[in-house]
């Protein structure tokens, strides 16, 4: 019997679980995939928005700047990469400078600090590669970049060490209400709980519609991206947006927190929630629109991968965070599209406050807010490297040459709380396989390490769980 059951282990579900672990509550998180951050969380812009874009009377407007302000402390406590690199919204037509004034006023209403409007020359002094066609920009110094999956792992591991249970490969098949509680039926048995929190992302409508006559419809909005090598990661230092026009919001150009360059996304509503294919049309659109912001030709010969992610949108065009009117103690945290990543910490506080009001739990006096991430060989000084190799010899064996990830880091990722079980699990915790060769050289070695550490055969190792096995047999074994 649980006090609270959270459906979904993306950034939202894991942030809520960590916030609830500050109280004496029996909490569990159900995730149908094999790991955290397996949905929208692993494929997005990784932008920490300042908060000027959302309407002030919306949940997005109320929660964006609040969430942004929490990032500095959270990054320290949970040891995930985060940088306030600032953001610029470029204007290409003097007649539209009034729209920047409107964004500035809106941002101030939302509580965004230090916003300022720059002229074109000031923008190019700050960002020399911005196009000469830029006549001005809104500058938000609190804008930032983050690693969404390392952040999610941080939330989850900290929640776990503070008592939250995680059940992976556990898919919700139905939810029933008895006299007092909910019975959450899964492929691994029934779970009884007082409160259900629906943080199932793209599938939150399916979960809602199991219990409520107030039907919810989530519309997947696909966004495609192109990622470039670190060699061109300094093309810009701020996150570069384009002022929205009648032709749309435009395409962003941004450094990543790990030093790459990212452009995108497209925004196309689709019907298949599992459609993560990239398209020639999408990539052409990204490149052409991104080039409007940058005078330097985009170095397409330095692109290392393209990818797509689906955002969970609804007709409401706002977050849905509420107890369902005809299902007491069933709380939807749905339609969490952009700026959902930025707002995750403040969403977690909002939902936690709702639970505390209902259950009136005592505080967890043994709550430990600190979580240490995996020690990164690439960030160490030579003295630190010598010391850790002496302590753990596996840190002296480079596995991923592109990102300088060692065998010691991979082993630590597997043995850590809620440790990695797949290639993608290793990737999101260590960055092994994210470099220019995209795991072309290190994948087989990682398979060997996973096989040894998990004590299973190499043929059982998967990329991301399910049927995503990598090996089918030995070469020439039938000869």
Automatic annotation (TrEMBL):
Residue stretches making up the FAD dependent oxidoreductase domain: 3-354
Gene3D superfamilies, per the entry: BFD-like [2Fe-2S]-binding domain, D-Amino Acid Oxidase, subunit A, domain 2, FAD/NAD(P)-binding domain
Pfam families referenced in this protein's UniProt entry, alphabetically: DAO, Fer2_BFD
Domain BFD-like [2Fe-2S]-binding residues, every copy: 398-451
InterPro entries: BFD-like_2Fe2S-bd_dom (IPR007419), BFD-like_2Fe2S-bd_dom_sf (IPR041854), FAD-dep_OxRdtase (IPR006076), FAD/NAD-bd_sf (IPR036188), G3P_Oxidase/Oxidoreductase (IPR052745)
Protein name per UniProt: Glycerol-3-phosphate dehydrogenase
Taxon lineage: Bacteria, Bacillati, Bacillota, Clostridia, Eubacteriales
